[in-house]
Specification:
The complex is a heterodimer of chains A (about 350) and B (about 325). Chain A has about 350 residues and is α/β, with parallel strands linked by helices. Chain A is about 45% helix and about 10% strand. The chains are: A alpha/beta (about 350), B alpha/beta (about 325). At the A-B interface, helix 7 and helix 8 of A face helix 3, helix 4 and helix 5 of B.
């Protein structure tokens, strides 16, 4: 009776554990990620940056997941489309823009790696690479360390559905299952591995693969912000309670081409892409917040102006920032490189 | 000083480091209850428990990858590859990940792992239990590679590897496990990575090698001494980084150099050592650089005549060393 009464008076975002402030903040990061991504496309087309790999269409799930995690304790291993995730765990647009411009101050790699190759010890984001899914065993290793030290933390790792075919996904998932480690494996199923559609990548569901490794797997609508938040939050609870890993297959659609070097209309139709824009999670969540009385078009306009200004400043800063010094190419191959007495 | 086998020295190094540092742990196939297929980790699980001596699923990329993840967040894992032949599924984790973690994060992250892997043949192991895969990893900046020949070095180099802030491949020679027995101090010494070791002084020829073949070289040198030929023998100890100064100095001493390894000749460590010599001290040479290596066959056959043909031996060293001395 009581439970029913509570449920009746609680809004859906409250039911999954988000208060009003966090529910709005989550939306703001989604919008920021979208605008950041769009800006990077423009900068690449204008010849200001060399390359961009997009996360458009995936921000809803990324940001919702980040909000369900503990940024003081957990370990994060996002993949290359996770701008939304990175912004939500604390990397600033300026820092991401420094990476896009490959400048020395880029906190991810000091301008060494392509954009989208995230890493920051301060933000507990383990450095990533381009060979896909190598980060899954790393997440399992971080979870193993966390369990050995009794930290009560989880590892959160993302990858695409194409990558879920790599051996490292399977080896890592199996290891985590055997050791019952606190790992959340989140597949961002965006329907394409560059040009190859999901039907040619997978004969079954990614989420069902969890069954073979002895832990639960769930398929969640990645365009549903609250469903994603709830799923990751529950997975985190399972992890910290010693119940082991969880696999989440977040269903979404890669609305942009694979990268700025890709012409996606060579392998998919405009009609298909347009139909998926209709399912975009960001306007959907915006509508929810407006209906809940937490957001308005006026607030949206004001926030968009704020973002535009922030991105403009970030772009200008990164554009003017110095590149790394050529001779520093030799630094940090090993510990102590570049210290006094070293040659 | 206790007498012990090479394999005991490896075990002792792990035991001592695990006693001193709670972040050190061992993972691999059969390392726990069984104590390793060669008994390298025997008794460690009894002493340190299942959490620190972990029997893993049979999946080498995960063994390396999980170790890398744990190392990045502050642990010091020792990942055992049961045979170096089975290390190749982990190659992407070692070369694309471990070797580049410090570099790609601009020194924000590091990866202090040790990957232990038994190398070498002469045990009727056939193609896939006999290989020397050093050259696959050699030349990958960011990795360190060591290959001890003695029990003393095995203990000291493994302790140095565990304490090293960067990824180290520890290639232990499985033929040496029981063959080599010598005094090993039970104190807390380390053998520094990156320093070669002069095993024997002589004036006629220089032999540069690492791992098992050094024993053949030392035996051959004894015999040659009776013929009036003295040998200067350098153990590289560390394959990466190579101790260039020691190589050049050892070559200059005699002006004649033979480079020896069991890994096949083409593209092996010896090719790089020869290139260093050519770059640094060509005009100090009195004879062409010689190499005595495993043949360029894919791997070592199991049948006795072909295994013997493939393997190095005291007699092969004796012939090659004498020939060079007489050049």
């Amino acid at each position: 009776m009581n439970q029913k009464a509570t449920a009746a008076t609680q809004a859906p975002h409250e039911l999954v554990g988000l208060d009003d402030r966090r529910a709005v903040e989550m939306y703001k990061y989604m919008l920021l990620a979208r605008k950041f991504d769009e800006r990077c496309h423009l900068l690449q087309r204008a010849g200001k940056i060399n390359f961009h790999v997009s996360g458009i269409g995936q921000e809803t799930a990324q940001v919702a997941a980040a909000f369900a995690l503990d940024t003081d304790k957990d370990y994060f291993l996002p993949y290359y489309r996770d701008y939304g995730f990175m912004l939500a765990v604390g990397m600033t647009p300026r820092e991401l823009m420094l990476s896009a411009f490959a400048k020395a101050e880029d906190p991810n790699s000091g301008g060494r790696q392509m954009p989208g190759h995230f890493g920051s010890k301060k933000l507990r984001v383990l450095t990533g690479s381009s060979p896909v899914t190598t980060q899954v065993p790393h997440a399992v290793g971080a979870a193993l360390a966390s369990k050995m030290r009794g930290e009560g933390a989880v590892s959160f790792v993302t990858f695409g559905e194409g990558s879920s075919n790599q051996g490292d996904f399977h080896e890592g998932a199996n290891f985590a299952g055997v050791q019952k480690l606190p790992v959340i494996l989140m597949c961002e199923n965006n329907q394409y591995a560059i040009s190859v559609p999901v039907a040619k990548q997978l004969a079954g569901k990614v989420s069902d693969r969890a069954l073979g490794y002895g832990f639960p797997g769930f398929r969640v609508d990645g365009n549903d912000a609250l469903a994603m938040y709830g799923a990751v939050r529950e997975a985190r609870e399972r992890g910290v309670n010693g119940e082991g890993p969880t696999l989440i297959e977040a269903m979404m659609y890669r609305l942009s081409p694979h990268s700025t070097s890709d012409n996606d209309l060579a392998y998919r139709t405009k009609e298909e892409v347009d139909a998926n824009w209709e399912k975009d999670g960001i306007p959907r969540y915006k509508q929810y917040l407006i209906e809940a009385g937490l957001w308005s078009e006026e607030q949206e306009d004001a926030y968009l102006k704020e973002i535009a200004q922030e991105l403009k400043e970030a772009t200008e800063y990164a554009d003017k920032a110095p590149y790394p010094r050529a001779e520093d190419t030799l630094l940090h191959v090993y510990a102590g490189d570049g210290q006094e007495g070293d040659n | 000083m206790p007498m012990m086998e090479y394999i005991d020295a490896i075990r002792l190094a792990m035991k001592e480091e695990m006693e001193q540092d709670s972040s050190v742990f061992v993972l691999g196939e059969d390392v726990g209850v069984k104590g390793g297929v060669f008994t390298t980790t025997k008794g460690l699980q009894d002493q340190f428990g299942e959490d620190r001596v972990i029997d893993t699923p049979l999946a080498e990329s995960a063994i390396a990858g999980v170790a890398i993840g744990a190392a990045m967040v502050g642990m010091k894992p020792i990942a055992e590859m049961q045979y170096s032949d089975f290390m190749l599924p982990a190659t992407n984790q070692i070369i694309s990940e471990a070797a580049k973690i410090r570099y790609r994060s601009n020194n924000d992250w590091d990866c202090p792992i040790v990957v232990r892997a038994p190398i070498g043949g002469g045990i009727f192991g056939g193609l896939y239990h006999s290989q020397c895969p050093e050259s696959i990893f050699f030349g990958t900046p960011g990795l360190k590679i060591v290959a001890p020949y003695s029990a003393y070095d095995a203990k000291g180099l493994l302790k140095a590897a565990i304490r090293d802030p960067d990824p180290v491949l520890f290639f232990e020679n499985k033929k040496c496990y029981k063959l080599i027995k010598e005094d090993v101090p039970d104190d807390d010494y380390v053998v520094p990575i990156g320093k070669a070791n002069l095993l024997r002084e002589g004036d006629d020829i220089t032999v540069i090698s690492y791992s098992l073949p050094l024993h053949f070289a030392m035996q051959a040198a004894e015999e040659l001494e009776k013929e009036g030929i003295t040998s200067h023998i350098l153990d590289l100890r560390s394959l990466q980084p190579l101790d260039k100064d020691a190589i050049v100095e050892a070559v200059r001493r005699t002006g004649k150099v033979l480079i020896v390894h069991e890994d096949n000749k083409t593209g092996g460590i010896g090719a790089e050592v020869a290139a260093i010599i050519a770059e640094e001290c060509l005009y100090d040479l009195d004879a062409p650089i010689r190499r005595l290596c495993g043949p360029d066959a894919p791997a070592m056959p199991i049948n006795p005549p072909q295994e013997k043909f493939f393997m190095l031996s005291k007699d092969k060293l004796l012939d090659a060393m004498r020939e060079l001395a007489l050049y």
